[in-house]
Amino acid sequence: MLYKVIDNFLEKEEFLKLKEFVKSDYFPWFFQNEINNNHTNRDDFYFTHILYIDNKVNSPFYEKFSILLKKINCKALIRLKTNFYTKTKKVEIHEPHKDYDFKHNGCIFSFNTCDGYTLLKDGTKINSIENRILFFDPSIEHSSTSCTNDKGRLNVNINYF
């Protein structure tokens, strides 16, 4: 599976500003009863904030993330959302899923370093390291995970052309 990982993706000051905003009391998180569309574990849940979906801005905080969209050279956005996977006793690998069934670009940008990761279909584990971005084709099955060594795993998921 083709993928690309870039560490220190944003300038340090830009990264810290965005990270602090996402971790602030001002940024709302919304409970999701299912991790993905292949959800089978009834105990799994997570929190998201959908910033853009269905061809429209879905959050007043959308502009705060525009630095990422510019840096990835996004021509057409499909979805932009933040994810907060809560701490678990052991790292839980969530069901494999495709973000969308059609070929497109995708990336996962990590806000914190933890023992959570993204598991690609070929078995490659991309660790969650703060200010790291993973570029890959999210129309190919992949899995998210929880973490055990931080309050949660925080990232941004971007689907685009």
A few lines on this structure:
This protein has two helices and eleven strands; from the N terminus they run E-H-E-E-E-H-E-E-E-E-E-E-E.
Number of helices: 2
Mean pLDDT: 96
User: Which fold does the CATH topology refer to?
Assistant: Jelly Rolls
Query: Which structural class should the secondary elements be placed in?
Result: mainly beta
Following the backbone from N to C, one meets helices and strands in this order, namely: EHEEEHEEEEEEE
- Under CATH, the homologous superfamily reads q2cbj1_9rhob like domain
As a whole number of angstroms, the C-alpha radius of gyration is 15 Å
Which regions have little confidence, pLDDT < 50, spanning 5+ residues? none
What is the CATH top level name?
Answer: Mainly Beta
How helix-rich are the residues, as a percent range?
Answer: 10-25%
| Biggest β-sheet description | 8 strands, antiparallel
